Amino acid sequence: MTKSYDVVMVGGGHNGLICATYLAKAGRRVLVLEANEQLGGGAATREFHPGFSVSACAQWMYSLNPTIAKDLNLASHGLQYAAKNLHSIALAKDAKHVTITGEGGVEGVSAQDKAAYREFRRKMGKFSKLLDKLFTVRPPKVIENNWTDRINLLKIGLGVKLLGKADMYELLRLGLINMFDVMEETFDDELLKSLISFDGVLGAHMGPRSPGTVYGYLYRHMGDVYGFNGPALVKGGMGSVGVALANAATAAGVEIRSAARVKSIDLTAERASGVTLENGESISATLVVSNADPKTTFNNLVGRRNLETNTVRRVKNFRTKASAAKLHLALDGLPEFTGLSAGQVGNRLVIAPDMHHIERAFNCAKYGEFSTAPVLDISIATVHDKGLAPEGKHVLSAIVQFAPGQLKAGWTEATKNAFKELAINTIADYAPGIKELIIASELLTPADLEGEYNMTDGHWHHGDISLDQVVMMRPFPGSEQYGTPVDGLYLCGAGAHPGGNVMGLAGKNAANEIIKRGGSA
Amino acid sequence: MSEVSVQQANDRETMLIHTPFHSRSSALNKLNSWENWKGFMVAHEYDDYELEYFAIRSQTGVMDLTPMTKYRITGPDAEAYLNRLVTRDVTKIKVGRVGYTVWCNSDGQVMDDGTIFHLAEDEYRLCSYTHCIDWLMWSAEGFDVEIVDETKQVAALAVQGPTSCSCLMAMGLEGIENLKPFGLTTFPFEGGELMVSRTGFTGDLGYELWVEPALAEALWDQLFAAGKQYLIRPFGLYALDMARKEAGFIQAAVDFVPAEDQVRVGRTRSPFEIGLGWLVDFNKPFFNGRKALLKEKENGSRYRFVMLDIEGNKPANNSFILNKKGKVIGTVTSAGWCPSAKANVAFGQVDAKYGEIGEELITEIYYERELHWTKVLAKSVVVKGPMYDPPRRRATPPAPF
């Protein structure tokens, strides 16, 4: 007999699990269907070489919303940190590294830059707090007269006003411009500028000069409001987030099935009425919530034939181009980086010598090529979390930019190897002995990440976090406030407001909206 | 500035595109009276619009139809594609048949009306008023279809009137008398192919002829030679407009604003609001506008299309429509005298509360005689229409002449 559920969740990524748990706590009968064996989506741990595991997609935790962690009691469900408040160190070939410390300061620059950084952080912190007001509610619609939305808008408007005249002007000015210009007008040190601006383009198909990258920076630094002072490492890798969330979900009464890939979202009289799995099994539900990205949800699961031309166009134009690859190395020992102590190697290491270098690296991706001089964000988690590798061995995980998902020359063994070598050689410039330590290596291109984690184009955020694709315009007008043009179908993933990163607010807000709209919403 | 003589001005190249029939139509256009039809130059009136109109109703009239926007839609998903695009069930239009339809945007507002010709398996022609290649291409996402604008690759003539079938038979189109309304067939013609559909915009017996442009002049010549004994004559858009009003056909951009052309919010109409609700089929798979149209069906429409039989003979163009208490409830979109029906017709848009068949309304008509303006409040009865609907329009085979 086919069981019936109040809600069937397509995808057991972190947002899907969070949404499911809140819904179950509100009394809904929820089934989560995950295509992969592992739960957590982009929060995943994977053994890429016997005995060696890495966080295979997201590698740092820096913005999990604390309300969610508390509501879902994630600590008691197994979420532990191996390290918190790590430094971000921009490597210099001459060992004159620049460090943004976990205490919120900066080392290795002039007193003037130190002061400028304090002021920069003060200002950005205020903006992040303001964004938090927007992130923790459903995105307000501007045109329709709805009191909840009006009050939310008023609160945000009031928040803008309360910034004070100078900071308000700064917000309005900075919001639309790019990291390059902001860095140029704020700091002197090239390496510091590069380190900070890199945060604005991580995971994005943008360079420091791309408009809207200041928003990208603020987005990345939401963790500063959520109790993170710099990146953290989850014990056991990011996959432990999935495990803890699955435990919390199960405890709340959510039924979870992994290795159950949804083939289609079924419609009855144009209303979402359930799903059909790849094995042919049909499951009916009052509501379908999709944790899958908008393109997968609308194009593959609902089907373009069941959608208005306008909707199909909006979905097509939602920008999902990704150009962040992942490099994983199994190492025979801890690599030595010029000018860093063994203790320091466990921090976040950034290779991005200056902003022009990042911009040039991005230029390649613009034209469908991989960067000939890539920029990297490196994590050697085994410094803090020995369990990820055999005794005395280490794993290195790095985000390597830029490598377009749709490489003009095509991703073949040859092109993948060429980019991998390029990335390894780049690291070797700063850690000369590292090549001798490599036991195994792998490169995951955005195309690989797409296949592995079921994200269109392998985009972390399911679509660019840029001003035209946020708040009420995420993923696109006509599909906002977690609802979609298809009645009975909701979105709760990174493709919905406020977006991606292991933050969880899209899942939580979606649950709130579904609960608010009541029974069959 | 140099003086330009009338002759020079007339000889000047026009901005408008000549159709493949231009050499023939211009030779007969005694008034040199032309209209701009979507960038093409077509006759407004050849010599006397009234005689042209009466050719449609008593003999055979011929009109250059080439500017009609034509799209060829082919591929394995052609049927599914069209079924998502338009409001009626395209699967019911079999090969060799033509269907009239409308298509809507996501708000359920009419973008255009037109005809779908099912030419062969997986092959269709869509004729429309608007140029809508962008919409057609956007709608093709996810469908395996090819869409080609073939407006300039196909020359077309409308051959309309009671003796039209006889003309075509005399031209040698064997078996044409057996072609049923909304049917289409082909004949070999001058080494090419002539497609004939039993369609038209006059409400009379009539056909439309479609050939490649290279054969256009030969087609015109043979048709006029064969039709001479049946008093064949060309007609322009003026006569067509008279005929279509009499036949109860609404005209895009006159009786409704195509949704993409709208400038002011709220000026578009749904199929229900322009009297074309019968073209909306909710028993077929998803189509553009479906959700909005279902909602409208449940909650009611804003406007209603009415056809009015107006007392007297003063044309009710641009008139207000009043209820019996004198309150303005709508406006006239098309109006005119129907010579064959001997009726004064108007199409109008009224508040949906009004306009039941048989309801008596008032049309406020202003008319002028030698700069003297007069107002009449003419009694106007809502009729089912059309004003003129001769049985020969549907007779197969049509009566021979």
From TrEMBL, chain A:
Amine oxidase domain segment(s): 16-515
Top-rank taxon: Bacteria
A GO MF label: oxidoreductase activity
Coiled-coil segments: none
A Pfam family matched in the record: Amino_oxidase
Gene3D superfamilies registered for this protein in UniProt: FAD/NAD(P)-binding domain
Function: Probable oxidoreductase that may play a role as regulator of mitochondrial function.
Quaternary structure and partners: Interacts with COX5B; this interaction may contribute to localize PYROXD2 to the inner face of the inner mitochondrial membrane.
Protein's name according to its UniProt entry: Pyridine nucleotide-disulfide oxidoreductase domain-containing protein 2
Taxonomic source organism: Dasania phycosphaerae
UniProtKB/TrEMBL annotation, chain B:
One GO CC annotation: cytosol
Record InterPro entries: GcvT/YgfZ/DmdA, GcvT/YgfZ_C, GcvT_C, GCVT_N, TrmE/GcvT-like
GO molecular function: transaminase activity
Domain of life: Bacteria
Family matches, as Gene3D superfamilies: Probable tRNA modification gtpase trme, domain 1 (3.30.1360.120)
Residues annotated to bind substrate: 208
Keywords: Aminotransferase, Transferase
Keyword field contains Transferase: yes
SUPFAM superfamilies named among the record's database cross-references: Aminomethyltransferase beta-barrel domain (SSF101790), Folate-binding domain (SSF103025)
Protein's name in the database: Aminomethyltransferase family protein
Record's keyword annotation contains Transferase: yes
